[in-house]
Write a structure and sequence with these properties.
By secondary structure, the protein is of the alpha+beta class. The protein folds into two domains: about 170 residues, Porin chaperone SurA, peptide-binding domain (Triger factor/SurA peptide-binding fold, Orthogonal Bundle), CATH 1.10.4030; about 90 residues, Alpha-Beta Plaits, CATH 3.30.70. Strands 1-3-4-2-5 form a five-stranded antiparallel sheet, sandwiched between helices. The chain is globular.
Length: about 290
């Protein structure tokens, strides 16, 4: 069972590694009575594409904050409904070479209500991923543990935007995988986790020290391991079932995960994380230049 779990985790890691995450934000002054639209945007590959979209929208009067995710193929824009519309915004983006369609259009009143609800949630949570809320405590602890580990490199600190962006992307992808498992009602019993831990402990004499160094506590490790087992079980039973080779499994997982990523709503409440993700995202080497 231990070997099987490790193999699945390797397949999982390889699949997630091929999915690059990018989130970019731009802001202009706009009416306090802003409406909000969310668009599906095609043909984006990197930050250069986002720059072209931002440049196009700069010419459209009434557009406010622009949040674009290359990974999800989506963009959120606030706008003054007295000056422009979601349809006009989509038309401008499409005209720049990135086919856009309106996914969601929220009135100024509904958007204000949403912002108020998000502000209340942000005291305890940093984001909503699908139907799951990512707690501020869990995110802070994960960043602090990473900052103190050899993985972060010398001189790393919690305030490092690249470190925050890296941890955010990892936790976001994990939460998305858990959302998918929850939709399939996948269950792992505590006794199964305890058995797995016993096997790991028997195979590694430094097990306790390694757990504390990497996870901070045995309770956190137990929770993380259980989630990993749930994710792996969902992948094994609902994604790669019936496939024979690791290559087939990896290819199936990569396609499935990309689709799941695009279809899962992600709302970041914490402005620090938004900025960290924007700062930590790297642009491509101009592959969009010929568009």
């Amino acid at each position: 069972m231990h070997k099987k779990l490790i193999v699945l985790l390797v397949v999982l890691a390889l699949g997630v590694a091929v999915v690059a995450s990018a989130f970019f934000t731009a802001t202009k002054q706009v009416s306090p009575q802003s409406a909000m639209t969310e668009l599906n945007i095609g043909n984006m590959t990197c930050g250069s594409c986002v720059g072209k979209i931002n440049a196009a929208l700069e010419k459209l009067n009434g557009v406010g904050q622009i949040d674009i995710s290359v990974t999800n193929g989506r963009g959120q824009m606030t706008y003054d409904p007295a000056l422009t519309s979601s349809v006009e915004i989509a038309k401008v983006i499409s005209g720049a070479g990135f086919p856009a369609t309106v996914r969601l259009d929220m009135s100024a009143a509904d958007y204000e209500k949403t912002l108020s609800e998000n502000a209340q949630l942000s005291t305890l949570y940093v984001a909503r991923i699908g139907n799951r809320l990512l707690s501020r405590e869990d995110f802070t602890q994960a960043v602090e543990l990473r900052a103190g580990s050899a993985l972060a490199g010398k001189g790393a600190s919690y305030a490092n935007p690249q470190l925050q962006a890296q941890v955010w992307n990892e936790m976001k992808e994990r939460e998305i995988l858990l959302v998918a498992a929850d939709q399939n009602k996948v269950v792992v019993q505590d006794n199964e986790v305890k058995l797995e831990i016993a096997q790991m402990k028997a195979a590694n004499q430094d097990f306790d020290a390694a757990v504390l160094a990497r996870f901070g506590s045995h309770e956190r490790f137990f929770s993380q391991l259980k989630e990993s087992m749930i994710i792996n079980r969902n992948i094994e039973q609902h994604v790669v079932a019936g496939l024979k080779t690791d290559l087939e499994k990896q290819q199936r997982f990569s396609g499935w995960f990309q689709e799941t990523l695009q279809n899962t709503n992600v709302v970041i409440f914490d402005p620090t994380i938004k900025q960290a993700v924007a700062s930590g995202s790297s642009s491509c080497g101009g592959t969009c230049g010929s568009r």
